[in-house]
Amino acid sequence: MSTLRLVPGTPDAVLSALTALLDGTGTAFAPLPGDPAAAARVRQAVVPDEPLESSEVGVVLATSGSSGEPKGVLLSTAALVASATATHERLGGPGQWLLPMQPYFVGGLQVLTRSVLAGYTPVVASDYPDFAAGASAMTGERRYTAMVPTQLARYLRTDVEVLRGFDAIVIGGAAMPAGLKAEAAEAGVTAIPSYGMTETGSGCVYAGEPLAGTSLRLDDQRILIKGPTLFSGYRLQPELTAEVLRDGWFRTQDRGELVDGRLRVVGRVDDVVISGGVNVTVTAVQARLLEHPGVKDAVVLGVPDSEWGSRVVAFVVGEVGREELRDFVGEVLPRTWAPRQVVRLSALPMLASGKVDRQRLLDGVR
């Protein structure tokens, strides 16, 4: 049985390991973050001391752990190549990529995979004084980058002309707010929202339409995905693998709708919590809070509660009071959906992947 090689999660080290994997001279690897605590969590998920389940495994990546402990995701070399090839096909052809994120998450790793397959040396943003300097170092005829919504919002304020120079900017890691999408379009920036996760080899749905080879269907709103970019399973967790991979379909934890053939993600399966006997859709509450002019950012979660079963808690960046927010929610949603607790923060805690650290929020109020 083949073994798993740990490599530093730096762009140079991951690129070297990935290049060798793609040309057939390398072996399966798992990239480790530089932070010791994060690296320990990754080691626990990828289990480097045990033989790999299959010789076809190319990379083992740890999920972000935004909702709990990270899991080791087994990705074959074929899945990585299928994702990169389909992405280039959707965007209009191979090109050079700028990497402004960490390569030990699937989004950053696939920026490097696309670069290798396209025959270009990727430009690593952290090697330059700022984002604009990195972009100016690109020489490819077609130029691409990928980033999370928070990065796009920041660069729209500081580097909008630089953003216009990209043929496409793939947005992933978190949902792209409608306001941000409109702002980018108005600025003449080609920002394409993507949907996917580590288990799907990065984004597999662009602007609501699946990439070539990817199929979608819904099971009572739960999004199911099938295609060549899917992972092979969870590291040393056959029962969990069997639960989510059935007949070639990956059962995600997300809910969606198909509107004119396009996928619209409406929330997570666990976004409906029962509070005092009432079913509350926390994503709807969150969306309403974000419409308040005094709310800069917000996340709404259900927190276990001895009296209510679950209490609806809003984590809000802004100076608005609890009662004002409850009244605001109650204007368009059932009053019983209004958050029972409001936690005001200067900023939402974020993971390196660009996702909100939900577990940290929950740990702070339990």
UniProtKB/TrEMBL annotation:
Q: Which domain of life is it from?
A: Bacteria
Every AMP-binding enzyme C-terminal domain range: 286-355
Residue ranges crossing the lipid bilayer per the database entry: none
> Recorded GO terms, molecular function?
ligase activity
Protein name from the UniProt record? O-succinylbenzoate--CoA ligase
The gene behind this protein is menE
SUPFAM superfamilies documented for this protein: Acetyl-CoA synthetase-like (SSF56801)
Q: For this UniProt record, give its keywords in alphabetical order, as a comma-separated list.
A: Ligase
Residue limits of the AMP-dependent synthetase/ligase domain?
45-214
Q: Which organism is it from?
A: Kribbella ginsengisoli
